[in-house]
Amino acid sequence: MTLVAKYFGLMGSLARYTLARELAFRGNFLVKVSVEVIWLGILLAFYETVFAKTNTVAHWPKNEYLFFVGCFFALNGLIECLFLENCNDFAELVRTGDLDFLLLRPIDEQFLITCRRVDWATAPNVLMGFAVMGFALDRLGWPIDTIRVVTFFVTFACGAAIAYSFMLILTSFSVWMVRNQTLMEMWWLFSSLARYPKEIFVGSKAEPLGFFFTFCMPILLVANVPSNSMVRTLDPPMVGFTLVATAVLLFVSRRFFRHALQSYRSASS
After folding, report:
1. The overall pTM is greater than 0.85
2. What is the pLDDT of residues 165-213, one digit of tens each?
3. Spatial CA neighbour of 64 closest among 223, 204, 213
4. Pick from 190, 155, 195, 156: which is nearest to 170 by CA?
5. Under 8 Å CB-to-CB from 6, ≥6 apart: which residues?
6. Cα separation of 223 and 235, whole Å?
7. Which of 164, 187, 229, 235 is the most exposed place for a label (fewest CB within 10 A)?
8. Residue 201 has what DSSP assignment?
9. pLDDT surpasses 60 at 269
10. What are the phi and psi torsion angles at 57 (to 5°)?
11. Are 148 and 230 in contact (CB under 8 A)?
12. Are strands 60-61 and 56-57 parallel, antiparallel or unpaired?
């Protein structure tokens, strides 16, 4: 068995275990799923109201913007499902010393710490996001374009990796700060930025912000590049930059995480 297959098999086992735990409290699970469905409904109703007053938002027509909303919702759902709960728990592991037990196990620490639990209540968000995207494409009468589809899924994966890298860097600070509530609030700030098209940053004062969050701290790439590639302009240079930014951020975040672990003092020290 290859190393990749081993980790995928392990992740599947962890996912089945967390699903069994979730279903032990079915009422709570159904309420959490219902909240996510209601949240999407409110979001769609809000944009329906906005487009009742205008034809475009930041130069995005209604159905193209609807695709963008679905893309962000699916991406955010994927991050919340796989990583958010684990990263939120990292500070508690450091505070209580339970991190010691994870570090002693014969498996990659980053994988075990950030992927050990799956939040199944947010998993439907990914499906609902893709449903919204499919509805938008149907409304657009979008013809099947293999190159655009492949580019979309590649950049979609890159967007998830970029978001994960930022989350991992913020989480790593818990080793020194112990409590990471403020840092995780920064994550919600980043996710709030990612939910809007980069075209909203117009004007002499806003354009530097758009440039910064696109090329220096590329959180605006997360949903913008996949959506643009699918329903608007296929921009090869921007797709290439997204691939490079993804590789760099994954490398930097892993190095920073391992540096943080080297600074960790176990509960017995």
Report:
1. yes
2. 999 998 888 888 766 666 667 778 888 888 888 888 877 678 888 889 8
3. 223
4. 190
5. none
6. 14
7. 235
8. -
9. no
10. -125, 115
11. yes
12. antiparallel
